[in-house]
Design goal:
With 156 residues, the chain is of the alpha/beta class. The chain has 3 helices and 8 strands, in the order βαββββαβαββ. Strands 4, 5, 6, 7 and 8 form a 5-stranded mixed β-sheet that branches. Strands 2-1-3 form a 3-stranded mixed β-sheet, covered by helices on one side. α1 links the parallel β1 and β2. It starts with 8 loop residues before the first strand and ends with a strand.
Length: 156
């Protein structure tokens, strides 16, 4: 990935599992990232322990150009491996149709209601661990969905 100074961060989203974490994180984020727009999401109401993860979008350094593709989340509804594969195939197809390279993804985000499992590992098997994030959520936009996957890809 491309490294940018913290001052070039335009927007960041942080996922926490306890409301008490939000204000200290907001203070720390404003100290480090200056005027970046920040959004904090509580991903679960009843979590054991505290956990947080953040992602951000920064201004590209001078001399770096190119187009990136952000997908909408692809919901996975069934519990079979074939259900996960179907969702993954649909997501890759949407990347290709948008002019992206589905074999060289920049980032994969997996949102799951059941924790890290063989299914979530299968969803990110071809992505560098550095660029894959699995987040546990209490619920997804569809009541029946077990997992959602979204990606950021480079354009060809």
């Amino acid at each position: 990935g491309v490294k940018s100074p913290a001052t070039d961060t335009l927007r960041m989203t942080c996922f926490v599992n306890a409301r008490e974490q939000i204000e200290p994180m907001r203070v720390a984020a404003s100290r480090v990232f200056g005027k970046a727009e920040s959004v904090f999401v509580q991903s679960s109401r009843f979590a054991a322990g505290s956990a947080a993860s953040c992602e951000g979008i920064a201004r590209a350094p001078s001399g770096v150009s190119g187009r990136v593709i952000f997908t909408a989340p692809q919901m996975i509804f069934g519990e079979q491996d074939s259900d996960t594969q179907l969702g993954w195939d649909r997501l890759k197809k949407s990347v290709v149709l948008a002019g992206g390279d589905a074999d060289h993804l920049l980032e994969v985000n997996v949102y799951t209601t059941s924790g890290i499992s063989e299914k979530t590992n299968a969803a990110i098997k071809n992505v560098s661990q550095r660029n894959a994030m699995v987040r546990l959520f209490e619920a997804l936009p569809s009541e029946d969905a077990l997992m959602a996957i979204e990606v950021v890809a480079s354009a060809k």
